Amino acid sequence: MAQGVQDKELAGGWNKMAINNDQKKYQFLFPSFLDALTLKNEEKASTIFKFVFGTILVTVFIFFMGIEFSTFGLGAQFFSTTTQFRQLVSTQTSIALQSGILSPLDIDKTIIRRDQKLGVNFIFSIINKKESSTSTSTSIVTDPLSYESRELELEVLGPSKLWPSTSLKSSLNGYSVVLNKFPGMKDHILLITDEFREQSEDMDDQDLTALYAVVSELPGVGFFNSGPIAGASQLHRHLQAVPLDTFTALSHNKGISPPMDELMHKYRDELLLSGRASRIKELSFKHALFMLPISPTPTSLLKAFKHMLKVADCDEEDCEFNLVMTSKWMFLVPRAQHIASTLHSGDLGINSLAFTGCLLVREGPTDREATTDSLPIPSQI
Predict the structure, then answer these.
(1) What is the helix (H) or strand (E) element at residue 335, kind and residue range?
(2) Which helix (H) or strand (E) holds 77?
(3) 63-109 confidence digits (pLDDT tens)
(4) pTM over the 0.85 mark
């Protein structure tokens, strides 16, 4: 009998809160639960306040900051969030694809091959044979990357003078962010100087600062091909970037973003402590690796880049190079030729993306299908 009275009183409490006391119906969310705990009024208010306030703080922290597990060098993110800039790139890409503005390469399949010497799972994207003979180059005489010539529908962020207030505005002053019209990877963007500058001109602190801002905000991997030998197809100064999650999707959600990060991370503590660029023993070709501190200044970026040129034996005036940048490291490789000949897959055109761990393979005119065994081992190219 007493239990029935108690249940009736609890039910009445709910009804009073929900119907007869509208102005206070959101004040207490769990009256019966609190009653069951037999808390005093002061304890009720304190407990609710601590619970709600603590939950809000934790949720906001996870949502906006994310928690990165980098202890094992895997680059994985727990509760990672999509930035506003990343969402903008994705939205613009979807619109451009639907309208037929983009002409993405016809990727037949992707194959993962592990290079045991480097300890890296490389991603090979096999281009459909019908696509192999199709040229995606555009005349460099008319400068298709100029603001007057390029298709404005490709713009993610137009010339900086037209931008609304944004966290990227100060870092990207003098640049436009556009979609790559002929992407080999999803959400591939270009960072183009608003005024014409030669691709082969020396990199300056503005170039490096702009690229760092983009890869940090996406987040993603940025890269620069300094001339035709290094893989550049246009004269107008342009840098490039691909979101980290694009690499993850290509590796069937089993790989590192980007793949070469697995190798680079092994030297992070050592190179951060030294504050200098260095070569690493696993790579036989000339190169330089530099670990970036948190929030590097334009001056420190340029100083690190100049030091990398010396370590890689690359005179910037006479040496073309590939530069790869993440928010954690920069990697530079001087180039002597654009084509790498392989025993099984013929000639491979190598640009900066290859040094992130991703290679585009165009199958030859024969009917031979590319398989894991037929693909080259990158450390032997």
Answers:
(1) strand 329-335
(2) strand 76-78
(3) 554 434 333 333 333 334 578 899 999 999 999 999 999 999 888 78
(4) no
CA distance 156 to 84: 12
Show the tokens assigned to 47: 């407990």
Beta-bridged to residue 112, according to DSSP, are 123
Contact between residue 98 and residue 241 where contact means Cβ atoms under 8 Å apart: no
Residue with tokens 């890689």: 312
Distance CA 174, CA 197 (A): 11
Give the number of other Cβ atoms within 10 Å of residue 187's Cβ: 22
Encode pLDDT of 176-189 as tens digits: 999 999 998 999 99
Among residues 281, 248, 257, 286, the alpha carbon closest in space to that of 267 is found at 281
Q: Which of 235, 236, 255, 234 is nearest to 246 (CA)?
A: 255
CA 160 and chain centroid, separation? 21
Contacts of 223 by beta carbon, 8 Å cutoff, 6+ apart: 239, 240, 241, 322, 323, 324, 325, 351, 352, 353, 355, 356
Whether residue 206 is predicted with pLDDT greater than 80 in this model: the reply is yes
Beta bridge partners of 291: 329
d(CA 91, CA 81): 16
Do the beta carbons of residue 105 and residue 184 sit within 8 Å?
yes
* Token representation of residue 163: 């931008």
DSSP 353: G
Beta-carbon contacts of residue 331 (< 8 Å; ≥ 6 apart): 260, 264, 287, 288, 289, 290, 323, 324, 325, 355
Q: Which two tokens stand for residue 330?
A: 């920069």
DSSP notation for 163-196: --S-TTTTTTTTEEEEE-SS-SSTT-EEEEESS-
What does the alpha-carbon distance between residue 69 and residue 72 come to, in Å, rounded to a whole number? 7
